[in-house]
Amino acid sequence: MSEYYNQLAEKLRSTLNGKVTEVVVAFNEVNVIANRENLHEVCQLLHDDPAFQCEQVVDICGVDYSAYDDSNWEGPRFAVAYQLLSIKNNHRIRVKTFLDGEPPIVASVIDIWKGADWFEREAFDLFGIIFEGHPDLRRILTDYGFIGHPFRKDFPLSGNVEMRYDNEQKRVIYQPVSIDPRVNQPRVIRHDHRYAQTEASLAMNAISAANESTSGKNDA
Q: Distance between CA atoms of 99 and 94, rounded to whole angstroms?
């Protein structure tokens, strides 16, 4: 399979020359890094060209690199990744394009794949990415009055507002979040009395095994 994807990568490089910055094969997957201004043209070629013929977009997702690699990331903050599938040729191609600026903007591919509709709305809702040419770019997961984009790295885990039903007003209202902001910490195994018995048992078992081995040799 890797040899097939290496050959596919060569076809992509020759066909998309000047429209992409990189084509790499990693973990038996071919990845195309497209220039933002050429993204729509690249996707159109991948859809139409018989050598690629990606009839289906399986997923479109946003990426926020602002806290990537301990904040040592020096490239554009946002990216959009397109997971493409060719049913006829039985292969997959991932296309990624990097975006900067506020708001990040890229061309919609809904005219190429109708299935891109909800994917692009989701990336807009959660990351604030604008897809130019989308006919109905509205939030899809958060509420109508939601402020901010919850998958951005600078969005607080506890959010900014909370919702509750007000008995006096007889309706649902928003209010400032009432819980204290917190930062999730990875689980740490501490070497204290909780593990002392286990360590002692392991040591005793090792001693017993050594004694039995020695005893067996003496009997022989």
A: 16
